[in-house]
């Protein structure tokens, strides 16, 4: 028997916005989408021809209404998770500076949490392994 075909790789760029108190922004996935109701780091799928940093700049504008400069994005860590129908690769950036007021444009809700509190909310299984790097950086 031949081995199963390899899973398609999906590349999603994600960003932890960090406020002046060292808290992290998480966003609740919309109704009707996969993993609805779970809390994620904002971001989205890297479209053909985009660099992930460009994806983030586009997605942070579309989802939150903020303008981020590429120089304000710093890579932190990387998630790799085998969902049933695709394999997700998801690098996580952090960002402490943006322009504009954060608005809830696509998500059900937004909240700012200390990094240690991220363990208390339901997140997609791909996002959970990113939490320790944020705790190392920001404290619990
Ligand atoms: O956000 P979007 O639905 O385009 O993301 C594609 C898929 O990547 C989702 O269905 C979900 O399985 C996964 N994902 C994730 N964690 C995120 C964003 C997306 O696991 N923060």
Please explain how this structure is put together.
By secondary structure, the chain is an alpha+beta fold. The chain has one domain: Nucleoside Triphosphate Pyrophosphohydrolase, CATH 3.90.79.10. Helices cover 15% and strands 31% of the residues. A 4-stranded mixed sheet has the order 4-1-6-5, covered by helices on one side. The longest helix is centred in the middle third of the chain and has 13 residues, at 52-64. The termini are far apart. The mean pLDDT is 97. The protein binds cytidine-5'-monophosphate.
Question: What is the topology?
Answer:
Blueprint: E1 8-17, E2 24-28, E3 39-40, E4 43-45, H1 52-64, E5 73-82, E6 86-95, E7 110-113, H2 131-138
Parallel strand pairs: 1-6
Antiparallel strand pairs: 1-4, 2-3, 2-7, 5-6
The structure holds cytidine-5'-monophosphate.
Primary descriptors:
alpha+beta, globular, 3-stranded antiparallel beta sheet, binds cytidine-5'-monophosphate, 4-stranded mixed beta sheet, Nucleoside Triphosphate Pyrophosphohydrolase, about 140 residues
CATH homologous superfamily label: Nucleoside Triphosphate Pyrophosphohydrolase
- CATH topology title: Nucleoside Triphosphate Pyrophosphohydrolase
What would you call the structural class?
alpha+beta
Give the percentage of residues in beta strands: 25-35%
What low-confidence regions span 5 or more consecutive residues with pLDDT below 50? none
**How do the helices and strands follow one another from N- to C-terminus?**
EEEEHEEEH
Helix content: 10-25%
User: What's the total number of strands?
Assistant: 7
Mean pLDDT: 97
Lateral strand order in the biggest sheet: 4-1-6-5
| Number of domain units | 1
Rg over alpha carbons: 15 Å
């Amino acid at each position: 028997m031949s081995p199963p075909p390899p899973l398609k790789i999906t590349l999603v760029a994600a960003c932890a916005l960090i406020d002046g108190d060292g808290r992290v922004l998480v966003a609740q996935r919309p109704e009707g989408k996969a993993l609805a109701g779970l809390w994620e780091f904002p971001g989205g799928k890297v479209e053909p021809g985009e660099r992930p940093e460009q994806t983030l700049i586009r997605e942070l504008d579309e989802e939150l209404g903020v303008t981020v400069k590429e120089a304000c994005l710093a890579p932190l860590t990387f998630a790799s998770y085998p969902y049933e129908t695709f394999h997700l690769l998801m690098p996580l950036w952090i960002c402490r500076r943006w322009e504009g007021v954060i608005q809830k444009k696509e998500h059900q809700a937004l909240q700012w949490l200390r990094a240690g509190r991220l363990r208390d909310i339901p997140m997609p299984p791909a996002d959970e392994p990113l939490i320790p790097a944020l705790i190392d950086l920001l404290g619990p």
